[in-house]
Amino acid sequence: MTRPLRLSAVLAAGVVVLAACSAPAPAPAAAGDPAGTVTVQNCGAPAQFPAPAQRLFVNDGNMISMVLALGAQDRVTAVSSMQRDADTLRRHYGAAVDGLAQAAPEYPTLETVLARDPDVMVAGWNYGYGEAKNLTPARLREQGITPYVLTESCRQADGQSARGIVDPWTALRDDLQNLGTITGHTADADRVVADLDTRLDALGKAPRAATPPTVFLFDSGTDTPFSSGRFGAPQAIIEAAGARNALSDVDDTWTTVSWERVATAQPAAFLFVDYPPQTFAEKVAILKSRPDTRDLPAVRENRFLNLPYALWTSGPLNIDAAEQVRAALERWNLVPASGLTPRSDDVPRS
C-alpha cells in the first residue's frame, strides 16, 4: 500500500490456522471457459486465469497472507515486499513463510517480475501496481502474465487515483474466494471465509456503546498524516470492533488528510500501523508535540494501539485486528465489556 511518493517522501514532506499444504486436484474450467482456465470477477469485470495457476508472483504481506491462509503456497513462485511482515506471518502461518522465495525486499520492478516467469501476479494499485514503474495490469498482459488486482485497491474510475468499489469485508471475501478458485483451493477459501464470518458475528453481538467512540488510524506522516477512508480495511476493522472511523466519510481507501481534520475529529483513541521507517515512538512523539493534537483526550491518556501492516491492509488478518482493537477499546472503557478474547496478540514488543 504505497504512500504518496512512497513513505520516505511522506516523512520528508511531512485467522486462521495454517491450511494443509497438500494441493487439491485442479479445479475444472468454468462453463464457457476454454479448457484449463477459469473466469472470476475482478474489479467489477470478468477476468480469465489459468486453472489452476502454477506460478504466482505475490506482492505485499497482506496478499501473501491470503495465499498462506488458503494453503496455496505451493502455487507461489516468488513474493516481494514481505520482510516487514515476516514475523507476523510466521506467527500466524508457521514454517510455510520461510519456504517462499523472496524476489525483492520492497515493491518489485517489472524486470524483477519477468525474471521469475510467473503465470499470474497478485498485487494492487499502490500495492505494487503503478504507472511510475511501468508495472501495471495492462503491461503484464502484454508480457503474457495474468494480473490479479487486490479488490480493496480497485480504482473507482479509469485514470483516477481514488480506490475502493465495495465495502472492505466484501472486498476481502471476494479476494479469498477468487484466489481459492485461481489456485484450486476452493474448499480452503470456503473454510477461511466461514471462520471470518463466525468471528465477525461474535463481534457483532458484543455490547455497543450508546455513541460509538471515534478513533483515528495513524498510518504515517509528519506534515500531513496518512490514514484510511471508508473503502480501506481499517474501516471494516474499526466498525467491527464497535467504534467509528474518523474518516468514514472519505470515499477512498488510503489517503492523506490535514492535521486540522484530526483535531476536529476529537478521536478517543489512536490506532497505528507498525512498519519502518517511522516508529511507534516517533508517531506518539508527533502527537504529543503538536499544539493541535497534544491536548486531545486520546493523547493525554495514551490510548494508543500499534499493530503490524499485514493486519491493517486488506487480508485475512483483518479479523485478528478487529478482535484486538475491540479488546483495547474495552481496556480503555470506551465500549462495554464483552467477554471476547482475541485469538492472537500481534502488538510489537520491541
Explain what the structure shows.
Keywords: Signal. It comes from Pseudonocardia alni (Amycolata alni). Residues 1-29 form the signal peptide. Residues 55-333 form the Fe/B12 periplasmic-binding domain. By secondary structure, the protein is of the alpha/beta class. The chain folds into two domains: 29-201, Nitrogenase molybdenum iron protein domain (Rossmann fold), CATH 3.40.50.1980; 209-331, Nitrogenase molybdenum iron protein domain (Rossmann fold, 3-Layer(aba) Sandwich). Helices cover 34% and strands 17% of the residues. It contains 13 helices and 14 strands. The strands form four sheets. Strands 3, 4, 5, 6, 7 and 8 form a six-stranded parallel sheet that branches. It has a four-stranded parallel sheet with strand order 11-9-13-14, sandwiched between helices. A two-stranded antiparallel sheet has the order 1-2. The longest helix is centred in the middle third of the chain and has 19 residues, at 186-204. It is globular and about 60 Å long. The two termini are 23 Å apart.
Report a brief summary of the structure.
By secondary structure, this protein is an alpha/beta fold. It has 13 helices and 14 strands.
Order of helices and strands: HEEEHEHEHEEHEHHEEHEEHEHHEHH
End-to-end distance, in Å?
Answer: 23 Å
Question: Biggest sheet, in brief?
Answer: 6 strands, parallel
In the CATH hierarchy, what is the architecture of the largest domain at level 2? Answer: 3-Layer(aba) Sandwich
List the helices and strands and how they pair.
Elements: H1 6-13, E1 37-42, E2 45-50, E3 56-59, H2 61-69, E4 76-80, H3 86-93, E5 102-104, H4 110-115, E6 120-125, E7 128-129, H5 137-142, E8 146-149, H6 168-183, H7 186-204, E9 214-218, E10 226-228, H8 233-241, E11 244-245, E12 254-256, H9 259-265, E13 269-274, H10 280-289, H11 297-300, E14 304-308, H12 309-312, H13 318-331
Parallel strand pairs: 3-4, 3-6, 4-5, 6-7, 6-8, 9-11, 9-13, 13-14
Antiparallel strand pairs: 1-2, 10-12
Helix pairs in contact: 6-7, 7-13, 8-13
Pfam families: Peripla_BP_2 (PF01497)
Domain Fe/B12 periplasmic-binding: 55-333
Protein name: Iron complex transport system substrate-binding protein
